[in-house]
Amino acid sequence: MKLICVGRNYAKHIEELQNDRPDAPIIFMKPDSCLGQKGQPFFIPDFSNEIHHEVEVLVKINRIGKHIQPKFAHKYYDEIGLGLDFTARDLQRELKAKGLPWEKAKSFDGAAYIGQWFDKSQFLNINDLQFQLTKNGVVVQNDTTANMMWGIDDIISHVSRYFTLKIGDILFTGTPSGVGLVQRGDELTGQLAGQHAFTLNVK
């Protein structure tokens, strides 16, 4: 099982980090070793002083696929979820400045968290799903999949050109604006289309 992540998929997030707007989806991977355990807190690692939360809509792949056309992509998933992509922003800036890969900033142990899965049939429109993240009771990220630069089916099609998708693979579809620092004692809560998806404590 692999975690396939999309970077810079919301225009306002690109603006807030002052990044260049891409011409195609930016793809990076996280190993399954970075998954946080259900019921366990997120522990801030000792190598970073600037861990940021990034809430993202997730898709779980349910069949093997390669070179998938966008019109058939909907057949390759039946579950939608919400999760967190944690980023060591200080380390990422350092690596990017040197032209080095981001893995140490994006794929450390605990750098991904997956909330509850929902059957996609319960959602009226996958392409307009509202989701949000609250930190200590305050909404810090709030958006809809309608604002994605590349929608779920386009992402699946694009990724499958380069990587064979396998059963159980998970797509992180990108984060909207509002990313920010997490600190010990924070409580992070995610909602997808008004439904509770996760609560995660930071230690």
Give a short overview:
This protein has one domain: Fumarylacetoacetate hydrolase, domain 2 (Alpha-Beta Complex). Helix content is 15%, strand content 34%.
Task: Give the helices and strands as they follow along the chain.
Answer: EHEEEEEHHEEEHEEEE
Ranges where pLDDT stays below 50 over 5 or more residues in a row are none
Largest sheet report:
6 strands, mixed
Counting H and I runs of at least 4 residues, what is the number of helices? 4
Neighbour order of strands in the largest sheet: 2-1-10-4-5-7
Number of domains: 1
What percent of residues adopt helix (DSSP H or I)? 10-25%
Could you tell me the number of beta strands? 13
For the terminal residues, how far apart are their CA atoms?
27 Å
CATH architecture: Alpha-Beta Complex
- Under CATH, the homologous superfamily reads Fumarylacetoacetase-like, C-terminal domain
CATH topology name: Fumarylacetoacetate hydrolase, domain 2
Overview of this structure, please?
The protein is of the alpha+beta class and 203 residues long. It has four helices and 13 strands. The protein has helices at residues 11-16, 89-97, 103-106, 152-162; strands spanning 3-7, 26-30, 51-53, 55-61, 77-85, 87-88, 112-119, 130-135, 138-144, 170-172, 180-181, 187-192, 195-201. The protein has a six-stranded mixed beta sheet with strand order 2-1-10-4-5-7, with helices on one face. The longest helix has 11 residues, at 152-162. The chain is globular, with a radius of gyration of 16 Å.
